[in-house]
């Protein structure tokens, strides 16, 4: 489902997703309608803008947080022009499955956007680098001090939703080297294998200092 107050963007995103075989069960323009649609349709993903009526401040993000309270583990992908730090922290820290935050002006490739939609719907993460930087500045301490510089680079790319092979291509290293770094990251952050939690997402939350 899509929650976006701009009718042109709302319809445009809906048509873009339809072209990729993704059905939209509801397209709404405010937070109250978002909550009603989530409870009625139980969508695979809620794509949400931050600023919606009536005050155009943070209604969308607050509604997304409430939606995840009402429908636990509801995948939410925020698509906005703004980083609303306070509620972004609450949203990202509120669960380890299916969270994302992209900035509209930095979405430059349709294929990458659709990939992010599918990734978050599947329980993964997709967080824009600029969003990460702003949230890290907000943090009072860094929980990943034990990581090497390369491990931090790998974790930063994990936060953007890249697979191991995509990280390897970005850093121009082998897949095996990335797998080793990822294993070291999990070990240093104390993230044991779990059937109920996604370790990559938990590592990203630790990176942003949200999982403490």
Automatic annotation (TrEMBL):
Transmembrane segments: none annotated. The keyword Transcription applies. Residues 140-211 form the HTH luxR-type domain. It holds the Pfam family Response_reg. SMART domains: HTH_LUXR, REC. Keywords: DNA-binding, Phosphoprotein, Transcription, Transcription regulation. GO terms for molecular function: DNA binding. InterPro entries: CheY-like_superfamily, NreC/VraR/RcsB-like_REC, Sig_transdc_resp-reg_C-effctor, Sig_transdc_resp-reg_receiver, Tscrpt_reg_LuxR_C, WalR-like. Residues 1-119 form the Response regulatory domain. Coiled coil: none annotated. The modification 4-aspartylphosphate is found at residue 49. One of its GO terms (biological process) is regulation of DNA-templated transcription. This is Response regulator transcription factor. It comes from Saccharothrix syringae (Nocardiopsis syringae).
